[in-house]
Amino acid sequence: MKRLLTYCSILILWIACICNVNAQEPCDVPGYVELKCFQAPAKACVGMQINITRIGCPVSGSSVQPLYCYDYAHNPNQDTTITHWTYTAPGTYIIHQWYVNYCDSTSQPIIIVASPDPVFTVQSCVTPQRNVIVTITDTVYDLFQINYGNGVVTPPLSKAVSPVEYAYPTDGNYSITVQG
Hints:
By secondary structure, this protein is mostly beta strands. The chain has 2 domains: 26-113, Immunoglobulins (Immunoglobulin-like, Sandwich); 120-179. It is built from 1 helix and 14 strands; from the N terminus they run H-E-E-E-E-E-E-E-E-E-E-E-E-E-E. Strand 7 and strand 8 form a beta hairpin. It is elongated, with a radius of gyration of 29 Å. The model is unreliable at 4-34 (pLDDT under 50).
């Protein structure tokens, strides 16, 4: 009876060990090293598209496609193969990349900052035409777009071209906005 009890105890321990080993994550192995398998900016503004560049994991040239999670700390189950993302709120996020059936995975924090409104002034003049002069005084942004409120939007402009003059084709009330 004592021998049977010993065999049963050993069998139970053996089963418990096997179940515990099988319950581990595939990458939860001794010596696992997190790899740097993608590049992304460390900081960006709200509304700016973030582009991910894959840099060769798990095997350079492999047809295995990685999955990405763009808010791994708060929403880890939102995996996608999309390699670009636009954050809509400021904060610190974790971009996580992993491969199905591989132990290659990596994470990178990204800081998303609020996009401040550009600083500018507008002068209006009714003579000789319905003209406005937009002067960019902002020191944060390198490029600007001016929306004259009538469907006309400038291409990206350097601060060096400021001030910018525009003549409205018709009378009216217009709201001018500048985006940096």
